[in-house]
């Protein structure tokens, strides 16, 4: 009965338009009250939900991403990538994906990545003749690599909920799948551009390579410093975020000179707002997670699912479909808190590697970030392009197909995710 109350109230509130995090929190509180688990336990669970050392990296990486966006780093990287790609049909679409992959190695956030790349690439692509809907679709899908290529806020949260999977191992495991996703999106964006004759004017001069490399060098060095420092043991992922912030401030104030102290203050304010939303979601979701854990709800659900007799392959495909549908309507953090207590016991039953499993789940969440009707990346780019999300369906579904194929590839070839962390000694 308590299980039905927990999920029934959560679904009712969500369908009534209550924010998902609030719906989870209220459902958890209701079960704690009715089941007499002790209302005084709620403040403790809210506090312990957010008072975890790995979570300190989230607001700091948000600051780092915003600082690099304001410091003009993205524009320099765009010129450098354009110098490599050259001027041809579909070149700007290719540049958009490559820039998003590089910027994702700084921000760790899909929406932040989409916003930063959209601010630079959207005007250029529209000027070159790309349709607004196509441009929004490409940038939104490219931004999804931000939670795969480290540093990834999503992988940090996964490690928090699944302690057996360390942050360094997850970061290393996300690199090759993130690159494969980028390649798949590049090929699809290029094919659609050629097929539809986008960017017909190829007479524009290619930016000079060495000059553009010098301009982009400080931005390109940021992911190297972050990942290299963690690999060498010089600093932890949380400390890496702090290093990234100070490095970004140095680049923005001393090198590019596009950041003033007033700009930095505005970045801190915006980062505080974004981080507060994330932390509130985690805090309220932790109440829901604690209530369901106390009731052993997900243990019973896991046993029920395993009792269906599905094969290992069938179970993998069912989980993929479940996460894809969930990603269309829920944000990544909520999905982690709702589904991980159910999915981790299933993964342990089949003896799946939890690092690989975390990458698979995160890839599905990345796919959901630009899948209508609730893809958050697509919301960002559609708002920037001034169009409705329905107008992107013609294009974004092709990008969903490209990334979905990569998800299945990594699902059935686990070494694509596990080879690098094993090689680096994290597994």
TrEMBL record:
Q: What is this protein called?
A: TRAP transporter large permease protein
Q: Would you name any one GO CC term?
A: plasma membrane
Q: What is this protein for, i.e. what is its function?
A: Part of the tripartite ATP-independent periplasmic (TRAP) transport system.
Query: Source species, please?
Result: Azonexus fungiphilus
**What Pfam families does the database record attribute to this sequence?**
DctM (PF06808)
TM regions (residue ranges): 57-80, 92-112, 132-158, 170-192, 234-255, 267-291, 317-342, 354-375, 395-420
Quaternary structure and interacting proteins, as annotated: The complex comprises the extracytoplasmic solute receptor protein and the two transmembrane proteins.
Q: Which GO terms describe its molecular function?
A: transmembrane transporter activity
Q: How does it sit in the membrane?
A: Multi-pass membrane protein
Q: Which residues form the TRAP C4-dicarboxylate transport system permease DctM subunit domain?
A: 7-416
Q: Identify the keywords attached in UniProt to this record, alphabetized.
A: Cell inner membrane, Cell membrane, Membrane, Transmembrane, Transmembrane helix, Transport
Q: List the subcellular locations.
A: Cell inner membrane
Superkingdom of the organism of origin: Bacteria
Give the primary localization class. Answer: membrane
What the record says about family reads:
Belongs to the TRAP transporter large permease family.
**Keyword set includes Transmembrane:** yes
